[in-house]
Each structure stands twice: as C-alpha cells, then as structure tokens.
Fold each of these.
Amino acid sequence: MTDQLSKRVVLWGLVWFSIVTLSLPTVIIIGASFTSGDIIRFPPEGFSLRWYWELWQLSDFTNALLRTLYVAVICTLISLPVGTLAALATVRYRLRFRRSIQVYLLLPFTIPLVVSGLSMMILFGEMRILGQLWPVGLGICIINLPFMIWSVSASVNAIDPDLENAAMNCGAPPVQTFLTVTLPAVMPGVITGGLLSFILAFNEFLVSLFLTDSRTVTLPVQIYNSIRSIITPDLAAVSVLYILIALIAVWLLDRLVGLEIFLRSK
Amino acid sequence: MPLTWRFLDTIEALVAALWPARWRGATGWAFLMPALLLVGVLVIGLGYMLEYSLHELNLATYRLRDEYALTNYATFLNRPVYGTVLWRTVLGSVLVTGITLLLAFPYAYVLVRTRVPWVRKALLVTLFLPFFIGQVVRAYGWLIVLGREGLVNSLLTGLGLPAQDLLFHFPAVIFGLVQYMLPFAILLIVPAITAIPEDMERASESLGAPWPATFRHVVLPMAWPGLIGAGVVVFTLTMTDFAMPEILGGGTTDFFASAIYDSFFQISNPGLGAALSMVLVTLGSLIVAAVFALAGPGTLGIRGART
C-alpha cells in the first residue's frame, strides 16, 4: 500500500508542478489587467477597468485586432477545403509516391518557422505583393496546413470504406455520396482543423512579423513591439482578449467533438 | 424534397461533364493538387533563399553581387560568435527537451489512467488553454511573473529576502520554452500511453515489482515511440524558436533564429541570413535523422499512414 502511496505522491507532485507552470502566466495576466496603477506589478494596485477602456480608445490596437481577424478568416477559408481534400486524398486514394507526398506535405512543419517566414517574405517581395494583407493570411495558412491535414486524416482513418460502397451500390452518384456520406463522417476532424487553423492564425507571430509592415501590423506583432518598448498594463488587457478567445475555443472544441478525442490511441 | 433533388442532379451532371468517369482514377490527384500548390509556394521561397545564400553582399551598394560565391558560408564558419550562439541553442534545446519530457510523461500518464471524469476534464482544459494562447502573450505573462516588481520578487521581499534579477537570463528562457512545449509533448505522448494495456502494469505489480520498476521495465519501453516522437518535435521547435529567447532573454541569450533575424534586419545582409537559414535547416534535419537512426522513427514515422 505504501508503494501505491509513493507512486501517487511522485506522479501528482510532478503533475501539480506542470499545472502551475501551464496556468500561471494566464492567471497572472488576468489579475494584472485589472490594476488601477500605471505600471505592471504583482500584486496589482487597486481594481479598475481603466486599462480596458484605454485600450478601446487606442485605434492602433483596434485596427490591429480587425486586421488579425481578417487574416485568420482568410487562413481558415483557404485551409478548410484544401486540407480536407488533401487528407481524403492521402488516406483514401491509392496514390503513387505516397510516402514522398506525405514528407512533402509535412514540409511546412519540418522547415523552421523563421526560415519559412523569411522565404515567403523574399518570394512575396519578388512578386510585389508584400504590404498587402491577404498574403499574410495565405502564408499563415501554408505553415499551418499540416495541422489541418493531420486533424482531418485522423477522422478519415476512422471511416469504414464500406459505407461509401453501400451508398454507391444503392445508386447514389459520386457527388451525393461525397456530400451525404463522406463529408459528415469526417466532420469532427474538419471542425477541429478549422478551429485550430483559426486560433493558430489569430496567434501567429513570427511569420506575421516578416510579412507585415507598420501599416498592416497584426495584433501579436503589435504586442511584441510594445513589449520591446514600454510595458504598460494595456498589454495585459489585450492579452486577456487572447485568453478569452482561447477559453471559447476550448469550450467549442469540447462541445463539438469532445476533448477526450485526443486521448485515443492511434 | 424535389427541389434539393433537382439541385443535386444539376451539380451531379455538372461534375460529370467537367470530370468524366474515365478520369476517376485521377480524382485523388485532383484532391491533392491545391495542397501541393500551396506547399509549392514555400518550396519556391526556399529556392530563393538558397539562391540568396550563394551571393556575397556588395558593401558599396548594399545589394547582392551577381556572381556565385560561398563567402556567406565561410563567414558562418569563421566568426566565433555564430559557433557560440549555435552551441547555446543546441544546449538549450537539449535542456528544454529533457525537462519537458520529464514533466509531460507523468501528466500524460495521469491523464490517461485517472478514473475520475472531472479530473480528466480539468487536466485537459489546463492543457488546451495555453495551447491556444500564442507565444507572445505567454511570454508577456512570464514577464509579469518574473519581472523586477513581479510575483516571484514580491513573494521574496514579502519573506524578507532580497529581490532577484530573474529575467533576461538563460534559466528564464529555458523555463518559458518548457511551458511553451509542454502541451505539444503531452499531446504526442498520450496516444502511446493509451495503447498500453493497464493489465500489463497490474501483472507486473502483482508479481511484486515496486512501481518504479514497473515504470522502468514496462511502461517506459512501451511508451518509447511516443517519447521519441515528442522529443524530436520539442527539440526541433525549440532549436528554431525566436520569440521566447528574444523576449525573456532580452537580447542577452540569443538563439540561432535571432542571429538569422539580425543578419536580415540589423546588418541588412540577406545573403548571410539566407546562409545561416540553410545551416539551421540542414542541422535540424541531420539531428532528426540521427535520432531516428538511433532510436527508431517513433510515432512520427507512421503519422497519417494506414496501419
């Protein structure tokens, strides 16, 4: 019995350390954002919504927020169809060179982000499209494509191919089979992937740093630039926005597909 | 619903006209094409990067010379500062990988083995919330925790101890990176632990093995592919990270990505920056290949493949 006790103590000791490490920045940011003082310190001085109000007044931040949302929507709209079709193709169809295709499609994940970001900066610069907003969405979509393909292919792996054959046998033409049998079956993966694309794009920093300039700066880059100059509590208020969106995403993911889906063995 | 039927029939006819049945064999490739093209954008960009790295900067005009030369690679080898930064990057990545796996493994184990639904849910939420918050925001959180007037220092002064300079040193960067990598590592280890039948552990324990022995000889070997996969992902992501060393290191503990950034934007030498990028890509791939050769491809080798 003492054996089981010591196992619990050691395991839970390490788990609690992880829990604190994972949650501490989030909790601290929320606390600090309500300060009424002029500088960030902990514990905060007093309680006020002052910095949220000041943030609302700063057009720099509200514009950056709108641009970030635009970029994230473009990224999600591109990666949803592209990633879903690619996942179906790599798992369902017998393609030649399948291993090479998989390695190729994983490139955005295996190439370091700094290098991908700078490569696309050079390419977009040569194409004279740097300085616009849509290439930022496209670039972020490319570097996160493996995540989209990966979440959909997990669902594709789980479909029984006989379902499609049954639909075809009963006379359903190909498009109808695709829309009424295949697509609903992979929906959990598509939802997870879409959510992931949006959140990753909304948070993407490094690639945005290279692909934006002072007129098209997105929110993570704006936060980074402010951290490098003066740290004021309005940054904590923006960060709370990020925390809220992450909370909504976790809640949505749990409602739509269930977080437990990630506990399955492959 | 005849209207939907008619609508579907039209689409069906349209698709049949645009994509005749004898092309059916190529449908897979048609599905794949958009993704191949998107990744192609990145590949073309990398081609430009390689091309840039082979041209020396003309200091008179601040443009790259037309003729090909290996000068930029020679600069990387000759300046000791790049060796120092590279060594710090690799050392940091080894440390971060070790600490992250040490923390991620018990977390994943408890997450899979707990029988209490709400504990599992709470652990999952604790894991996913930071996963969905970007690096910059999390680094900012650490600035408040570790800063001069931050949480740790107010606790220290509250206890009558002197305040410490915690930020802008190597340990702060390591700690920030561990926190960033933890969710990735846990999510990659979890499937490996799910695949271990609990009876295996019970069998070992009922034969009298104390739990550390069961862990060492039963659980760890069976979870090995997951640990290798997680370790490789954490190592490569850390080795190429920019934001954490930059924000929490405050310029004193640059990683290799910062050196690339500086070549492009501080000394405005894109040729050198491109050469350093190529070095980073090559080195990263070599290390991953070496790990796979020594320890097997782990769970990454079969990702997406049907088994």
Amino acid sequence: MDILNALVAFANFVFVPGLAYGAQIALGALGATLIYGILRFSNFAHGDTMALGTTFAILVTWGFQALGITFGFLPTALLALPFAIIMTAAFVLGTDRVVYRFYRRQKAAPTILVIVSLGVMFIMNGLNRFIIGVGEINFADGARFVITAGDFRAMTGLTEGLAIKATQAITVVTAVIVVGLLFWFLQKTRTGKSMRAFSDNEDLALLSGINPDRVVQVTWIIAAGLATIAGVLYGLDKSFKAFTYFQLLLPIFAAAVVGGLGNPLGAIAGGFIVAFSEVMVTYAWKKVLTYLVPESMAPDGLVQLMSTDYKFAVSFTILIIVLLFLPTGIFKGKSA
Amino acid sequence: MIVVEDLHKHFGGFHAVDGASLEIGAGSITGLIGPNGAGKTTLFNVIAGRLKPTSGRVLMAGEDITGLAPHDLFHKGLLRTFQIAHEFGSMTVRENLMMVPSAQSGETLWNAWFRRGAVAAEERAIRDKADEVLEFLTISHLADERAANISGGQKKLLELGRTMMVDAKIVFLDEVGAGVNRTLLNTIGDAIRRLNTERGYTFCVIEHDMDFIGSLCNPVICMAEGRVLAQGTVDEVKNDERVIEAYLGTGLKNKVVAHG
C-alpha cells in the first residue's frame, strides 16, 4: 500500500492530462454551443474553424520568430493569438456573409444548415491543408515544463514523479480567463444579454429592438475566438496536424450535448466529463493499482479498459447514453 | 397613425389577407374583431414586419414602413404583443423588462469596461423603471421569478409591461385577454386606458371578448376572409348584417336578429 505514490501516479497520468484536455474540449464545445443556441444549427465546421485558427496562429508565430520576437518563457503562439483570432473571425464572418446568410434569409431548416456547415467544413479543411500541409507541426516554444518528473521526485522523495508541462498549465489558466470573460460578457453586457435574449426567443428579441444581424456577427466573432484559442491550446499541448481537429468534432459535440446544447455552462461541464471519461477508460491502471493493493494481488495485465485507439468510441458511447436517458443534457439545453 | 392600403398576404394559394384597407387613428384604441381565420393575426404580422406582404402598403404617420424589419419598427415606436405570450424564459421578469430599452451605453464594450459609473447609473434608472412598471401591473412580487415559471395570464401582463418600458407610439395587442380571468382582464383594460390617456399610446387590439372590446375600443373594425367588412362603434359593428353573417353564417342570421 502506497497511497501517496498512487495519488501522484494518478495525478500525473490521469488528472493533469484530463484537466488540460477537458479545458480544450470545453472551449471548443462553448463555441459550438453558442452557435447552436443563437444560430440554431450544429456547426460541423467548428473543428476545422479551430484548425484554421491554429494555422493562422502558426503562420503569425513563424513570422514573429523570423523577426526574432519571442514571448519569454511563454510560447510565442500566445502572442500570435490575438492576430489569429482577428483573421479567423474575418474568415468566418466572410463565410457567414457568402453562405449562411443566404440560408438564414430563406429561413432554412436547421437540418439544411447542418449540411451546409458540412460543406463549409470540407472547404475549410481543404483550404487549411492547402495553406499549411498535412504534416505534423510542433510550434510550442518557451519553457517546456512547469515542473518535471525528476524535480518532483527530488523534491518529495517519492518514487513516482509528477510532471506538469508548461502547455498544460497555460491551457488551464487561459481557459479559466476566457470562460470568466465570456460569462461576464453574457451576463453583464448589453450585447451579451441581447445574445441570451435572442437564444431564448428570437421573435421577441426582434420585437424588443434587438438587431439580429449584429447578434449573429458578435456570435460568429466570439465562436471564432473560442475556436482559435481552443485550437492553439490543443496544438501547443499535443502538436498540430490538420486532420486531428476534424476528429475533435466528435468529443466537442459529445461535450456540448452532454451539457445540453445551447447552454454554455453545460458545455464546460460536458467538456470535462468527456475528457476525463476518455482518459480514464483508455488509461492503463496497472501502475496505480500496484501501489494500492498488496503485492501478491498486483495485476499482471495492464488493466486498461480500452486501447487508446478506441478513445473516440468513448465519446460516441457517452453521446448515446446521454441521448437515451437525458436527451436535453445535464443542464437542460434546447435539443430534444 | 397607421394606414393600410390594399394589403395582400398569400401563402401559396391561400389568401390570408386579401385586399385589406384600414386606418387606425392617432390616439384611438381601435378594436379588431373577426371570426377565426379572418386574417387578423396575419395582418398584425405584416404590419409589425414579421411577414413581408405579397402586395400593398403600410404607412405610419405618412411614412411608408412596408416590409421594414421588426427591430427597425421598434425604434420607430411600433410595438406588438403575441397571441401566445412570448418571454425570455431564462431571465427573470425584471430582466425581461430591462431588455427592452435599446441603445443604452452598456451596448459597447468600451463603455462596459471603461465607463462603469455611467453605465451603472443608467442601469439603475432602467431598473427603477422596470420596478415601476411591475408595480403598475400589480406583479411586483414576481420581479425575481424566472419568466418561464409565471402563469399564462401573468405573461400577458409582462407583454404589456414590455411596451411600457419605452415611449411607444402605437402598440398592437394580439388577444391580450385570451386565457386571462376577469379580474386580470380588468387590470389589463385599465392599464391600456391609462397608457392611452396619460401617455398618448395608440392601440390596436385583437380580441374575441365583446364586452372587453365594447368597454375599451372605439372604433371597432371587423375583418372576415382577409378583408375589412365593417367599421364603426361597437354597436354599429355588432348590428351590421354582414358581420353577423360572417360570424354565424346566413342560416342563423334571422334567428339572432330576431332575438336582438
């Protein structure tokens, strides 16, 4: 029995990675859920919006690096983030102007808009690969670790080490700041309240003098911002590959649905539920268990419920369970 | 105040509004009656910008407002309520009212960040006004209740309260009394009359309760099959043969007239 070492192993392999991944999923789900709440369709292009935003961030980062500008111990990409957000927002607003606005004017059904977003997704996906290619790009610079496993061991004298990557810490801190700002915006500012009003009852919002075009624009800008931030954080933490973002669509929508589509608080809770489920189901518990049970009972196998290859199956399973038993999600969203 | 000229609204082959022409005089409380399916609500939807007319014009104080968006009409002082009460369900009753006055300085991020004091003062003023309106409508005790949770009748009052948050010129009330008990209906009637005399609102009211219409409205316009059938005082319209025919069909006409 060695509870301390078990806890550290758990923190190192499950809690910290789950927290960072959860924050990334939550930010992605927030954008998707806002679009669902206000524009009333599931935006399948959200994953590729994240990818495109990250591409912009990488390009600006390279530009800064070429000019010799860095951000000290923080990744240069954080410095590039505001520029990337502006570029992504401009692109997304352009898409809305050229594509979605047409269907909005036709009062197209949500199903049609979903398929439209699928088309936009393929175009963005292709464009993105055209710009930056399909290879793996590592653009994280600055400090690598807040604390390394070796330092932790030396500090505590435990056998297990706890490593916290700089990108993980940055992810969580950034996510907290962004979510705080977003909720302040939605609760306190007039524009934020207009967005909530529009999400509650579009007809009434129009009759209360709320300009729908403005609400739609602000929604796209915020969604683009959230997507870019989520994408860059994910890219810093893992690495950037155009295809992985397309696959992120699944956990993102699973998170949004679990929390209740259209509900921002639900998206955050859903993000962490999905991330922790994924990490915990695919983690080999052998190490943690070995510390917890008497030596004679130590497991021989890996005690891994599922291979990491199946991690997306976890999102699918959560999605199905939630839709079967709690169709409107934990926080009672709009989907039924 | 409002002039409707030969308005048509067709849904495919169905002519919901079929050449309606009418005038709503400034300062009046005009009643709009007619059997179900007469096109009253569609007419409201077209005037209030929710639907675009197939043809025809709507003038407000001489200005052509045909096909303007609802939020533009709001800024011109044209407001409406819904037959089935609408509300922002996730907000409190007070917040629902506070949503209405537009063009506040909280609107821009710059002000929200850097002119907190001014924004807060303005917010307080709007809040006081909302409380005043709630008191007027006798629903002060519901101020902090989520709007989704209040009763149907109370939602109707909230709808009316919304029109009191700004200086409206004309308010279209769609069955403001439907599903509302007598006492509450009288409260609503009083509120309408006071808004009319004290604040100079013009009203156009769709209503099926003839007592309510009779005590409140002059003139009364009767619509049927998408057209205006008759116009005049309540008694004139009530006794108009075409109106009786539209409501009851020709077969019953003689009977009703005989019984007075």
